[in-house]
Each structure stands twice: as structure tokens, then as C-alpha cells.
Amino acid sequence: MKIDILTLFPEMFEGVFNNSILKKAQEAGTFQPEFINFRNYTLNKHKKVDDYPYGGGAGMVLTPQPIFDAVEDITKNTGNKPRIILMCPQGETHTQEKALELAEEDHLIFICGHYEGYDERIRQHLVTDEISIGDYVLTGGELGAMVVIDSVVRLLPGVLGNEESAPEDSFSHGLLEHPHYTRPADFRGMKVPEVLLSGNHGKIDEWRKQQSLLRTFERRKDLLDEYQLSKQEKEWLKNQKDT
User: Fold this and answer.
1) Could you tell me the pTM of the whole model?
2) CATH 3.40.1280.10 fits 2-153, yes or no
3) What is the third-level CATH fold of 170-242?
4) Residue 22, SS3?
């Protein structure tokens, strides 16, 4: 996967992209990031990429010309039109489902803004997706882009090593992930559930599914609105409500 990131602060990505899973994915050739400072595309003699909003108001707005020119330069020799993602608090909230969708693409372009916002023509005539990572406002789109890219890259084949890791993550199947335990089996009197020590994989799988459902019920009931409960799961929830 090729990922181009339009940003005024490319150095912000160095720590995140040069460590852990993202670093390994680059070394394996699974994904190729490129950072484009769109200030280099401005035709303004003072290298400005923002201006005052028409109609007045606080703050500065990113002008369309540098961003349009940067995207056109990136895509001029590509056969397929890439997904062009605007990081924006007005966008759709990012989800695991969206990450899975984007992981199917060969080429993504992220636009990271600053200041008061974007010229509306960027939204209307350039981007394919607008994404937010939550109902709050950040200084710029870089941190949000890092979050989205990390969630996408870890889904690419071979990135996690264990192919079972991603499908078991929270939200991947509509529920929160089940609890995890490791050695020692008894830590300061706090013991690992016996079922996990039993070696009975059928019982372990059933316990994990039950715990996943109950944890979702306790912490994120809203997720169950879209989840199709099985007969067994309905029984687990009924027992939970009766206790």
C-alpha cells in the first residue's frame, strides 16, 4: 500500500512511523509512506498556504491551490484514482469497519490541515472521505492521520505476524475483546480463571465469547444495537441481567 500524507509538519510523523509495527511494515515493503509538505506547492511569493475567510471571522483558512496542485502532482502518473482522505472534526467518526474498508485500497492520500479549517472547495471537489477520530478538536490533522493509518496498516497481510490477531481485536466482530491473562497463574492471590488452564479449547472459546459479550454489555451497550445475538448469547445476557 502506498500512503501519501500532505502536511505542513512532516517531522511530526517520525517517532510514530519509525517504531514498532509501522516500522516493521515499511521494512517488509508492506506499505510505503511519503510525506509531502504542501507549502512547497504554493504559488504565493511569501509561501503562505492560508488566508482570511471571506465574510470575516476568527482564524485563517487553508487555500485550495497548494492542496489541489499537490494531489494532482501525486496522482498524475497513477492508473487508479486513490482514496483522498481529509482529516476533519466534521467527518465521519473512524471505526474498525472503516479501517477494514481502507485496508482494501492500494493507494491512500491523507490531507492534514491546520488553522481554522479548509476552503470548502477542497471538500466538495477533491476528497473522497472525511474522517474524524472523535468529537473534539486537535491543533491539526496529523495526530488523527497517525491513528487512522496505524489502524489500517496493522490489517494488511503479514503485518501482525499472527493472522489471528486482527480478527480477535475489539470491534472487529462487533463486540469488545475478551479479557487476557498470562503467567503467573497466581499473582498475589489473584488467579487466572480455571477454564483458561484446562486445555479444553472448546470451553476456552466459549468462555472468551461469553466474556466478550458481557464486557460489551457492561461497557458499550450501544454496540449491541447493531449486533445480531445468537440464542446462546441471548441466554448469557439474560443470566447476566438476572444476577
Assistant:
1) 0.87
2) yes
3) Trp Operon Repressor; Chain A (1.10.1270)
4) helix
